[in-house]
């Protein structure tokens, strides 16, 4: 039975990877730190879900559309949470230590911190800057875990420790949400890989 499940899952992943007409599936680059490993073992079913790439419905990336769809779902779950878009390059540097000089574009929405964490960073690195941006987002991910270690409001520790950094097509993405798998499937619709 396990072999059948694994074979079926592998087939779904191969079919999903072909969803946007390319054979390369997104590269997951999840980091871990000791704080992440020490996170609560009481994971929710959403965090134990297996990611299966979804079908892309656009020919050119639409990160803002993806962001809006993700946060429609987040607002339903956390109606009191307030969000802000980061559009200023100085704020990008101050909040995340990322220079706008290494990016072609960025689309960022973050919670204000009063009601937990729900942050999404969708960055398009300039040519030759992908590894630099990946490294910067991995540092942001580690900093996020450290920031909430002693301040667990609305499952912030679990969300930070389950956050994801990965590359999809021309973009490098950080997801720090309660349901990263659902958010990633939304991204699959709007960011070709």
Beta strand %: 15-25%
| Quaternary structure state of the chains depicted | single chain
Structural class: alpha+beta
| Biggest pleated sheet | 6 strands, antiparallel
Arithmetic mean of pLDDT: 75
DSSP summary, beta strand count: 6
Flag low-confidence runs: 14-48
In DSSP terms (H or I, runs of 4 or more residues), the helix count works out at 8
> How many domains, as an integer?
1
Shape: globular
Query: What is the helical fraction, as a range of percent?
Result: 40-55%
Describe this entry's structure for a reader.
It is a single chain. This protein is α+β, with helices and mostly antiparallel strands and 193 residues long. Helix content is 43%, strand content 17%.
SSE order and pairing:
Blueprint: H1 2-17, E1 27-28, H2 34-37, H3 45-48, H4 63-77, E2 83-86, H5 89-96, E3 103-111, E4 119-125, H6 130-148, H7 156-161, E5 164-168, E6 171-176, H8 180-190
Antiparallel strand pairs: 1-5, 2-3, 3-4, 4-6, 5-6
List keywords for this structure.
single chain, 193 residues, alpha+beta, six-stranded antiparallel beta sheet
Please sum up the structure shown.
By secondary structure, this protein is α+β, with helices and mostly antiparallel strands.
């Amino acid at each position: 039975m396990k072999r059948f499940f694994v074979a079926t899952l592998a087939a779904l992943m191969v079919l999903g990877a072909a969803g946007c007409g390319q054979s390369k599936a997104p590269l997951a680059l999840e980091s871990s730190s000791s704080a992440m490993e020490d996170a609560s073992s009481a994971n929710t079913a959403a965090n134990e879900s297996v990611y299966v790439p979804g079908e892309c419905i656009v020919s050119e990336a639409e990160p803002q559309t993806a962001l809006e769809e993700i946060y429609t779902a987040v607002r339903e779950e956390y109606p009191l949470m307030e969000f802000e878009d980061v559009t200023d390059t100085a704020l990008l540097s101050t909040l995340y230590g990322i220079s706008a000089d290494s990016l072609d574009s960025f689309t960022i929405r973050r919670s204000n911190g009063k009601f937990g964490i729900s942050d999404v960073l969708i960055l398009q690195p300039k040519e030759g800057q992908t590894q630099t941006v990946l490294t910067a987002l991995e540092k942001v991910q580690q900093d996020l875990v450290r920031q909430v270690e002693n301040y667990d409001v609305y499952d912030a520790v679990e969300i930070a420790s389950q956050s994801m950094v990965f590359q999809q097509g021309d973009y490098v993405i950080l997801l720090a949400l309660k349901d990263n798998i659902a958010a990633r499937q939304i991204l699959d619709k709007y960011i070709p890989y």
